[in-house]
Amino acid sequence: MLPTLDCACHLACQASADRIQLRSVLTAPGSTRRSQEMRLFKRESHSVLGSVFLNPTVAAGVAFGSGGTQLRKGPAYTERALYCRVDEDRRVLLVNELGLEGLPDGTVPYDSAEGKALLARVDAIFRGDGGELRTDAACVSPASDREYGARMARMDGDISRFNADTRGPAVNRCEGKVLILATVHDTYEPPQSKTTLWVSTDSAERAFELKRFLFGAQREAEARGDSSIFLPASIEYMNRDAVDAIDEAARLYILVIGLLGVDNPLLKPLFETKSAFERLPMMSAVPDTLLCAFNGLLPPPLPEGVRDACAAYDHHLLIDLGEYGGGEASALRQRLDDFAAAAAETVATPPVRIHEATSAGEAKTLSLFRFVAAAAFKVWCTGHGAKGLSLDYALPTDVGGVPPIPLTPVKRLR
């Protein structure tokens, strides 16, 4: 008996006269990030997933280490979970680390009486028959990586993004090596307003220095004892090759997903139809080849100002600034402007160009452009008859420029 409902059950609620603040959420294994968001009341979900999945389950986000771009909230990390693992004697064990009242933490055989009782209790919770949920008073395990942003801002570690990190209990970055049955995640206050910026630079070194300078706002806040978070809501990097591949292969993806929305149930049958066609004899490359061939018939998705920047510069950062009531967005924007102005004093051609999205629709398009990157790369390679390997990487923390690929790769897998 496993809780497989596509639902989320809220806990640790604090009611007031005019609102309910949901501090954390218990998610079932089939709960998607979008369905979770819809159930939250004036709160944001723990993280987002990138361009590999359209509407993934929360468990998938935990298993694959998603959300490393979310600097303020952190990735899909939690130390509160219910999962199954196999021990050295090949026995299936049920591990409860949820930290909830009435569900004692510990490890028991999956098929034992204790294990069956625990699963029955969790199943009842997800069916709405479990009564009120509260975090156990003795629970000190975090339901998010609360130091993620500060750690990234210090830029003094070996890891510059969470999807290269294997800290924490076994569920995090497990990639299917354990079976996740339920997880608890913190939720977050949404920003009062959001600004989306496309920042272009003349070199990878300049992009690295911009990132270091921007993150300096958080380091300075820590130094003066300010508890405010002066970090972008998210930041992502793309070079010219990535931008060209997306623009040359994924215009239809951007158009369809933009019109329907990433959580639209119509998207699933569309992609299932494409996959079914690819499974036919000698037809595996036809859909992507056609997508690439007819891509140019569709209008370019990027606004004119961003297209001009992409033609003139090789390195780009997509940055979301959120305003949370402490002047964070304006302070960070001023910091970006100061960096661009200082860089322009040293050369004839401005080495940094900042484009601010002028509408919510334009901001959505910029986000979708980055969102379809993984799918675009596959379409581009197929359409051009090329073989490719898609790698997820981030700007390094300790050096400027494009880091060399070592002969002996560093593997961070569980």
From TrEMBL:
Coiled-coil intervals, chain numbering: none
Pfam families assigned to the protein according to its UniProt record, in alphabetical order: Lact-deh-memb
Gene Ontology MF: a single term: flavin adenine dinucleotide binding
InterPro entries with a match to the protein in the record: FAD-bd_PCMH_sub2, FAD-linked_Oxase-like_C, Lactate_DH_C
Domain D-lactate dehydrogenase membrane binding C-terminal, chain residue ranges per copy: 231-398
A biological-process GO annotation: transmembrane transport
Superkingdom, natural source: Eukaryota
Keywords associated with the record: FAD, Flavoprotein
Name of this protein: D-lactate dehydrogenase membrane binding C-terminal domain-containing protein
Organism encoding this protein: Chrysotila carterae (Marine alga)
